[in-house]
Design a protein that fits this description.
Rossmann fold, four-stranded parallel β-sheet, alpha/beta, globular
């Protein structure tokens, strides 16, 4: 499963996986928790209908880039909490994993102001930044989650929180691989095909998929 059409097309072109792109309602029309619930509904639908498109529910991964990385991480938490379908791998690319934004969603004229603006579009209640389905980094319990590949960019403002999430996943006993692409910033807007720099990190995701599914 992927959250973004361009990323989905790139994954299709490089792997033999069936890729499902979730067309959840974007903010500001789509307020939390609606987009995440739409992702969960898609996860359920996929497992229930997999036989109709020769899908294999024993090999299931979720992938998200930037805001989609937030959604993918939260989806893994939600699937665990609701005893939903078993996810074999989560790939989080430059994830927005902590929407607390250093304690405020009000403009501070610093590097996190873009994330603050996005958080305000996504949330109806500012206090929801403390919900683990909004800020997975602060979840009290990160145990029993799928193996994770977290792909970061050295100069991305989200890089620090991504490293912290990887550390916490490891602390709770989850198999976690972190890859940090040096010398670059946030590449979500570049797209999978328009930037060779973006392809470098996306190819790490492809390798992770291949390795995970070959073990089945």
């Amino acid at each position: 499963m992927s959250d973004e059409p361009n990323l989905a097309r790139y994954l299709c072109s490089k792997t033999s996986a069936i890729v499902i792109s979730v067309g959840y309602l974007n903010s500001p029309e789509g307020k939390f928790p609606l987009p995440l619930e739409q992702c969960f509904d898609t996860l359920i639908w996929t497992t229930e209908h997999a036989s109709e498109f020769s899908g294999d529910t024993s090999r299931l991964a979720v992938i998200g880039d930037s805001a989609g990385g937030n959604m993918a991480a939260a989806l893994c938490l939600m699937a665990r909490d609701r005893s939903g379908p078993r996810i074999d791998l989560q790939v989080l690319i430059n994830p927005a994993i902590d929407l607390r934004c250093n304690g405020t969603t009000l403009r501070q004229n610093d590097a996190l102001d873009t994330l603050r603006w996005q958080a305000n579009q996504y949330l109806s209640n500012p206090n929801d930044v403390y919900n683990p389905y909004v800020s997975p980094l602060i979840a009290n319990d990160l145990s029993n989650l799928p193996p994770a590949v977290i792909i970061l960019a050295e100069k991305d403002d989200l890089c620090e929180s991504g490293h912290k999430y990887a550390d916490r996943l490891l602390l709770f006993g989850n198999n976690t691989l972190i890859y940090c692409q040096m010398g670059i910033g946030h590449l979500a807007g570049d797209g999978a095909r328009s930037s060779l720099r973006a392809q470098e990190s996306l190819n790490v995701a492809i390798k992770a998929l291949q390795n995970a599914f070959l073990k089945k």
